[in-house]
Design the sequence.
């Protein structure tokens, strides 16, 4: 799908944070919407989707249990 989205899970990216989550969310929304930059009338929906996906990403990574690793710091 989106080859530019990198794995953010610890220990592969131990220092991933909010900026990384938002960047991945932005790439995802761009891919599925087909818009690199939406028109003004679509901006709110686009931005809300990016924020929702970034928040879901943070929740996912915070809840993962990685065997043999301390987990993600954050």
Sequence:
């Amino acid at each position: 799908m989106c080859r530019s989205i990198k794995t953010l899970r610890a220990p592969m990216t131990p220092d991933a944070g909010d900026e990384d989550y938002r960047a991945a969310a932005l790439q995802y929304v761009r891919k599925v919407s087909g818009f690199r930059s939406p028109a003004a009338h679509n901006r709110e929906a686009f931005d809300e989707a990016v924020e929702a996906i970034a928040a879901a990403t943070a929740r996912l990574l915070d809840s993962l249990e990685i065997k043999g690793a301390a987990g993600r710091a954050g």
Observations:
- Helices lie at 18-33, 43-63.
- The radius of gyration is 14 Å.
